[in-house]
C-alpha cells in the first residue's frame, strides 16, 4: 500500500465523510471555524488518485515559537481495524512535521469496551468497583487491544486520563450512547428506566413544551448554561463560542446543529444543543435552572431530542462524556445516573495519543502544561 497525505478541499472532505455514513462532528471542515485560536486544514489520504481517508487537523501556535501542536480531535477518519497502521500514520506525521508541528495528537474513534446500563448501576454501590475501568465489561471490542499495541510499537504515547473523574484534557474517554439502529421509538422508550418514563409523563402532564430555537434564542440558552456552570463547577465558554458554532455548522449543513428549549408557564427551564453528522447524533451541551425541577424539563427535552434523532434516521444517540469514578460523593455521579437512565451503554474509547515529532519540544511542552 502506498498512501499519500495532502491538503484537500472542503468539498472533497465533506464528500468523503458523507460516503462513510458518519464521522465525529469534530472531523468536519466547519469545526475548524468554531476554533479561531487554531489554524485548520482538511487533509486526505489518497491511493491511486482516490481519497481513502480524511481528517480535520487543528494547529495551535506556541507562544514565542514558530512551532505548533497539531491536533486531530476524534480523528482521523481512516479504516482503523484493517491491519497495519504504519502506512496511514507515517505520512500523517511527515505532513504535520512539514507544517512545523512539534507534537501530533489524535483521538482514534475506536471503542475498546462497553458496559450495559444495569452493569453500571450495579457497580455504583459495589465497594470493589471504585472506577468504571475496574468493572468487568459486557463487551470487549475485538481488535482494540491490538490497535493500542500497534500505536505503542510505532512510538505513540497514550495521553493522561485527566485526573480522577475520567474526563481527559481533550475529548472524553468515557461516554454514554443509546443504540438506535434497528429499534423502533417504542422500543427505545421501553428501554428507559422507570424513573425516566415517569418523569417524561410528569413533564407532559405539567404542560412542559419543548420547541426548537434559532440563533436569537442562544442568549436564553446561555443564561441557563452559566447557571449550570456555577452549579456543576466548570468554567463556561463565552456566548460568542455558541454563536460561532451555530453560524459555522449550520452554514455547512442546516441539520448539523439544533437548539432545543423546554418552556413552562412562559419561562425557559432547560435548553440543549444537538449535533448531527450522518447517522450519529450527539447531545452536545445542556443547561438548566434549579427552579421548578419538579416538572422534569430535562427529561422532556432529552426525549424530544431522541425522538427527533430517531425520526431522522440516527443509528446512535450519543450523550457524550461521563465520569469514570463510581464514588457516590463525586459531584458528577448525578450526571452518570441521569445518562444511565436512558438504558444505553457506557463506552470507553482507546483514548488520545501523542506522537513527539520533536522529542525535546514535546517534553518541554508537557512540563509547561503540567505546571499550568
Topology:
Layout: E1 4-7, H1 10-20, H2 30-34, E2 39-47, E3 50-61, E4 68-72, H3 86-98, E5 101-106, E6 111-116, H4 117-123, E7 139-140, H5 144-153, E8 157-158, E9 174-179, H6 185-191, H7 194-206, E10 209-213, H8 218-232, H9 239-252, E11 257-264, E12 267-277, E13 280-288, H10 297-311, E14 316-321, H11 333-340, E15 345-349, E16 353-356, H12 359-370
Parallel strand pairs: 4-5, 13-14
Antiparallel strand pairs: 1-2, 2-3, 3-4, 5-16, 6-7, 6-15, 8-16, 9-14, 9-15, 10-11, 11-12, 12-13
Pfam families: FemAB
Family: Belongs to the FemABX family.
Keywords: Acyltransferase, Cell shape, Cell wall biogenesis/degradation, Peptidoglycan synthesis, Transferase
Secondary-structure element order, N to C? EHHEEEHEEHEHEEHHEHHEEEHEHEEH
User: Structural class of the helix and strand makeup?
Assistant: alpha+beta
How many extended strands? 16
Assigned CATH class of the largest domain: Alpha Beta
Q: Note the overall shape.
A: globular
Mean pLDDT: 93
Q: Strand fraction band?
A: 25-35%
Any idea what the radius of gyration is?
Answer: 21 Å
Strand order, biggest sheet?
Answer: 7-6-15-9-14-13-12-11-10
Low-confidence stretches: 162-168
CATH superfamily of the largest domain: Gcn5-related N-acetyltransferase (GNAT)
Termini Cα gap? 43 Å
Oligomer: single chain
How many strands, which pairing sense, and closed or not: the largest β-sheet? 9 strands, mixed
Instruction: Estimate nothing, just give the exact number of structural domains.
Output: 2
Proportion of helical residues = 25-40%
Return the CATH architecture of the largest domain. 3-Layer(aba) Sandwich
DSSP helical segment count: 12
Amino acid at each position: 500500500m502506498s498512501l499519500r497525505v495532502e491538503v484537500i478541499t472542503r468539498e472533497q472532505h465533506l464528500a468523503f465523510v458523507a460516503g462513510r455514513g458518519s464521522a465525529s462532528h469534530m472531523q468536519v471542515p466547519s469545526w475548524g471555524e468554531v476554533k479561531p485560536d487554531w489554524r485548520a486544514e482538511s487533509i486526505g489520504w489518497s491511493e491511486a488518485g482516490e481519497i481513502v481517508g480524511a481528517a480535520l487537523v487543528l494547529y495551535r501556535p506556541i507562544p514565542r515559537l514558530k512551532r505548533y501542536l497539531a491536533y486531530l480531535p476524534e480523528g482521523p477518519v481512516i479504516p482503523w481495524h484493517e491491519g497495519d497502521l504504519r502506512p496511514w500514520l507515517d505520512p500523517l506525521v511527515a505532513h504535520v512535521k512539514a507544517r512545523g508541528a512539534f507534537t501530533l495528537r489524535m483521538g482514534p474513534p475506536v471503542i475498546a469496551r462497553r458496559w450495559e446500563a444495569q452493569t453500571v448501576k450495579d457497580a455504583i454501590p459495589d465497594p470493589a468497583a471504585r472506577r468504571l475501568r475496574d468493572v468487568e465489561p459486557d463487551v470487549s471490542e475485538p481488535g482494540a487491544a491490538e490497535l493500542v499495541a500497534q500505536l505503542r510499537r510505532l512510538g505513540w504515547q497514550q495521553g493522561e486520563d485527566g485526573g480522577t473523574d475520567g474526563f481527559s484534557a481533550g475529548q472524553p474517554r468515557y461516554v454514554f450512547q443509546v443504540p438506535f439502529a434497528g429499534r423502533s421509538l417504542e422500543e427505545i422508550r421501553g428501554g428507559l428506566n422507570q424513573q425516566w418514563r415517569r418523569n417524561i409523563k410528569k413533564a407532559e402532564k405539567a404542560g412542559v413544551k419543548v420547541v426548537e430555537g434559532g440563533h436569537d434564542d442562544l442568549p436564553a440558552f446561555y443564561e441557563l448554561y452559566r447557571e449550570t456552570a456555577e452549579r456543576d463547577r466548570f468554567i463556561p465558554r463565552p456566548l460568542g463560542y455558541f454563536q460561532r458554532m451555530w453560524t459555522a455548522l449550520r452554514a455547512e449543513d442546516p441539520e448539523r446543529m439544533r437548539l432545543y428549549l423546554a418552556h413552562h408557564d412562559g419561562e425557559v427551564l432547560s435548553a440543549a444543543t444537538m449535533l448531527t453528522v450522518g447517522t450519529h447524533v450527539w447531545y452536545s451541551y445542556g443547561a438548566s435552572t434549579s427552579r421548578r425541577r419538579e416538572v422534569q424539563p430535562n427529561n422532556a427535552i432529552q426525549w424530544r431530542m431522541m425522538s427527533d434523532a430517531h425520526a431522522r434516521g440516527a443509528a446512535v444517540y450519543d450523550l457524550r462524556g461521563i465520569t469514570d469514578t463510581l464514588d457516590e460523593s463525586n459531584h458528577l455521579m448525578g450526571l452518570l445516573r441521569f445518562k444511565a437512565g436512558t438504558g444505553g451503554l457506557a463506552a470507553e474509547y482507546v483514548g488520545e495519543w501523542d506522537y513527539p515529532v520533536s522529542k525535546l519540544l514535546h517534553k518541554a511542552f508537557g512540563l509547561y502544561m503540567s505546571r499550568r
